[in-house]
Amino acid sequence: MYTSDQEKHLFDQGKSLLEDTRPLETQRQDMRKLREVINYADWKYYVQSEPVFSDYEYDSLFRRLKDLEEAYPAEITADSPTQRVAKGLSEKFPPVAHLVPMLSLDNTYNATDLRDWDRRCKEYAATSEIEYCVEPKYDGASISLLYDDGKLVRGATRGDGVTGEEITTNIRQIKSIPLSAAFAKDGIEQIEIRGEVVIHKEVFAAFNEQRAKEGLSPLANPRNAASGTLRILDPEEVRKRRLSAVLYHISYVHPQNNSSPLSGEEANHYDSLQYLYNLGFPTPVKEMKRFKTIDEVIEFCGTFEARRDDLPYEVDGLVIKVNSFELQDRMGMTSHHPRWAVAYKFKARQATSKLRRVEFQVGRTGTITPVAKIDPVPIGGVTVTSVSLFNEDVVREKDLHIGDTVLVERAGDVIPYI
Ligand code: IVH
Description:
The protein is α+β, with helices and mostly antiparallel strands. The protein has 12 helices and 15 strands. The strands form 4 sheets. A 5-stranded mixed beta sheet has the order 2-11-10-3-9. Helix 2 (31-47) packs antiparallel against helix 3. The protein is globular and about 70 Å long.
């Protein structure tokens, strides 16, 4: 994305802008510089997780840009970092047709399934050797982004796969998603990119704590929280919920014969995500791995599953993709899923059990919390015997009775939930 020289330049530029205390009128020329510096700071913070400015410094730069834009509104650009924030939406999200349908994935659960899939891949591709690219299967809400002439013009939910909901305003609240990108240098006029919106576990936990304080029932898991948040009509609220995004697939590029690594005989998935990353997009460059055989893939699946709790967000498996675009095209798709990709699902974090009794816990402040006692059931390596029911409303809402069969979910480090 940035060379180290550019990084140094932008950082120094930020610092010197911060030291500039001249009156606003004299700083009109700085609007472009401020945008560049803030975009750089956002990228460091949200894509690289390596903040370069303090919160105070960042806020001062942001405020300066806002003040200048207020004074010179004609000079505001659509991709200015200030333009992520928007007024509330009054309407529901209108339907949009995806340029290419958003397909699902076929699932595998063990080594035998993966070997069968590998065999079918080789039949469809009519080849004896295939390179695979493996990356996390993010457990969030899928989105589709459209860039026209390098500008983000549309963000959509998956919907039924053919038609999604237009959620551009909310997508713009996600700071890791670039509002513009330098596709033009490679002759790319239009590109549709797919990915997942996720909530980091710690953000989710804090969010549920806040809900509990407000007497609201908690959300079951980060996935529901992410997809629910994308449909909130108040973009300010969306921004506060600190969503993250990971982009993992390019579904459409125009023109096809462009000068980027997306085009040509050697073009492949791994390089495509590296390419997007270099343009500032959050893609799984650190997590994705290439393998020459299915045995290596299977081994990686095992080691990765063992480490799943170390990740800051939820994953429910891995996705294995045929790396070469040419082979992908040769293999094609069914109406449900591409033949060149498959999900390897980790062990579920849900289980059913029986509700035996309810105990009431009294907190420090005197609040009473009902706690369900259930038949012990193992979920994701932990035996669960008690599950908080939060408050009376939750019990009523779920219409819980002693002896009921209950579905318990324990998402990562998140507390179990009925
Ligand atoms: S590829 C045609 N890659 O899983 C390409 N999907 O259960 C299809 N998902 O609908 C998608 N992480 O929303 C792909 N690394 C990843 C993914 C991923 C999560 C989601 C995606 C898909 C669902 C299928």
